[in-house]
Each structure stands twice: as structure tokens, then as C-alpha cells.
């Protein structure tokens, strides 16, 4: 970037370019997941580790909610908590993700214990929660803009997994259907906020860096899965070990 600020349209184009280059739909592990080239144990490892990301999203959003300065902003962001935590036991995105881990054959108590997580999953997800907790509000909101790109990956994931894995059913993947409307709604708000409030070149660089960081979080989680579960003999001590089929 130059020292001159971008127009809002050019800033949006730069944000979208980051997703086109860095979003984790391009990762080899994700391509293998979508294309049916993973074993059941590898799919289980993905679902288990992704659960930690899903269950920490409400905590991430709560840290930002506490810092938002107006009731309008808090009302907007509060919807994300309801989306993920639900408004009653057994509802919301986290509960639906547990149905996914149930559906691929994982014990729910084991999943919720977090005992089988890869160490890198802990580090990556915790780094994201801490980023949103500690960075300026503009950067924290910008880091959520990976949701701009999620409808495409959701459509690919659902169709590919249903086509290729006989242990996956539409009920197993029920998490994803609401996200097809929730993610665009949330990203529309976040993008409008960033376009309005990132006015200086420094602020614009910060929001671009925030989105790059979030893409790196998601990419690094798949790097860890790829390293541990694609090549035999690399699963860290204590991490989930698939049963021989």
C-alpha cells in the first residue's frame, strides 16, 4: 500500500483479493476433504479439531461485544452469540457441530473434553480469540471478514462430503445450512463497518493485516491436520488417533 488511503471500493477489492489468495478452501487438506480423498479417521480428526474453533467463537464474540461503544453495535454483534450458542440448550451452531461429530462416529464426551486436540489447534484458535480481545475494534471486526468467502466453501463441503462419504448424511451436516444466510448477513455488516471506518492508510493496512491474520489462523489449522494425519507416524502424543478400519 501507498501512504494515500484507498477508496472504499478499492479497499473492498483488496480485502477480497486476500480471500482469493489465502482462504483455506485452497488448502490441500480441504481439497482432499471435499473431493472424498480422506479416510473416515481423517474426517473425524478434522471434525474434532474444528470443534474447538466452533466452541470458542462465542467467547471471541463476547470479548468484542463487551468493548463495543453503542447499543446498535452491541445488538448487531449479539446476534452472533445467539447464532453459535443458541437461545436454549441444544440449539445454535456449537450444538449443531456436536451433531456433526456424533454423525462421523466420535464420542461426544471425548469431543467436549478437548483431550484429543492437536497442540497447533489450541495455539491457532487461542491466538484468534486473543487477537479479537486485544486489538482495536476496527481490526477485530475486520478479522471476521473471512465470512465473505464462506458460502462458497460451505456449498463445496456439503455437496462433496455427501457425494463421497457414505457415513455422512444431511443430518450430520445440518450445521452448515443456517450459515448460508448467517455468514452473508454478518459479513455484509462487517464489510460496511470497515468501509466506513478504515479511512486512513494506516487503518486500511491494519484491516488488511487483520484479514490476512485470520486467513492464516484457518490455514494453520489445516496445516496441522495435514501434517499429523496424512503421513503416518506424525500424530502428537495425546492427540486423537483414528481407529484402524
TrEMBL record:
InterPro entries documented for this protein: Haem_Oase-like_multi-hlx (IPR016084), PqqC (IPR011845), PqqC-like (IPR039068), Thiaminase-2/PQQC (IPR004305)
A GO molecular-function annotation: pyrroloquinoline-quinone synthase activity
Keywords on record: Oxidoreductase, PQQ biosynthesis
UniProt keyword annotation of Oxidoreductase present: yes
Keyword Transferase part of the UniProt annotation: no
Domain Thiaminase-2/PQQC: from-to ranges: 13-223
Pfam families linked: TENA_THI-4
Pathways per UniProt: Cofactor biosynthesis; pyrroloquinoline quinone biosynthesis
Catalysed reactions listed for this entry: 6-(2-amino-2-carboxyethyl)-7,8-dioxo-1,2,3,4,7,8-hexahydroquinoline-2,4-dicarboxylate + 3 O2 = pyrroloquinoline quinone + 2 H2O2 + 2 H2O + H(+)
Enzyme class: oxidoreductase
E.C. code: 1.3.3.11
One biological process term in Gene Ontology: pyrroloquinoline quinone biosynthetic process
Purpose of the protein: Ring cyclization and eight-electron oxidation of 3a-(2-amino-2-carboxyethyl)-4,5-dioxo-4,5,6,7,8,9-hexahydroquinoline-7,9-dicarboxylic-acid to PQQ.
Family the UniProt entry places it in: Belongs to the PqqC family.
Name by which UniProt lists this protein: Pyrroloquinoline-quinone synthase
Organism: Gluconacetobacter liquefaciens (Acetobacter liquefaciens)
Biological classification of the source: Bacteria, Pseudomonadati, Pseudomonadota, Alphaproteobacteria, Acetobacterales
Amino acid at each position: 500500500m501507498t501512504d494515500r488511503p484507498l477508496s472504499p471500493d478499492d479497499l473492498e477489492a483488496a480485502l477480497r483479493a486476500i480471500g482469493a489468495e489465502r482462504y483455506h478452501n485452497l488448502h490441500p487438506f480441504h481439497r482432499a476433504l471435499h473431493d472424498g480423498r480422506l479416510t473416515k479417521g481423517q474426517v473425524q480428526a478434522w471434525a474434532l479439531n474444528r470443534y474447538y474453533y466452533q466452541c470458542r467463537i462465542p467467547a471471541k464474540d463476547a470479548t468484542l461485544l463487551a468493548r463495543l461503544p453503542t447499543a446498535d453495535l452491541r445488538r448487531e454483534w449479539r446476534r452472533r452469540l445467539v447464532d453459535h450458542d443458541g437461545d436454549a440448550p441444544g440449539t445454535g451452531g456449537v450444538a449443531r457441530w456436536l451433531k456433526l461429530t456424533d454423525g462421523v462416529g466420535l464420542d461426544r464426551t471425548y469431543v467436549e473434553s478437548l483431550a484429543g486436540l492437536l497442540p497447533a489447534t489450541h495455539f491457532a484458535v487461542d491466538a484468534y480469540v486473543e487477537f479479537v480481545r486485544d486489538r482495536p475494534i476496527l481490526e477485530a471486526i475486520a478479522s471476521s471478514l473471512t465470512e465473505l468467502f464462506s458460502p462458497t466453501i460451505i456449498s463445496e463441503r456439503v455437496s462433496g462430503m455427501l457425494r463421497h462419504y457414505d457415513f455422512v448424511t444431511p443430518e450430520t451436516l445440518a450445521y452448515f445450512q443456517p450459515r448460508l444466510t448467517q455468514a452473508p448477513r454478518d459479513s455484509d455488516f462487517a464489510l460496511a463497518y470497515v468501509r466506513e471506518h478504515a479511512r486512513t492508510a494506516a487503518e486500511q493496512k491494519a484491516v488488511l493485516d487483520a484479514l490476512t491474520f485470520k486467513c492464516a489462523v484457518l490455514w494453520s489449522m489445516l496445516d496441522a491436520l495435514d501434517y499429523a494425519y496424512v503421513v503416518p507416524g506424525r500424530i502428537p502424543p495425546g492427540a486423537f488417533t483414528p481407529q484402524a478400519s
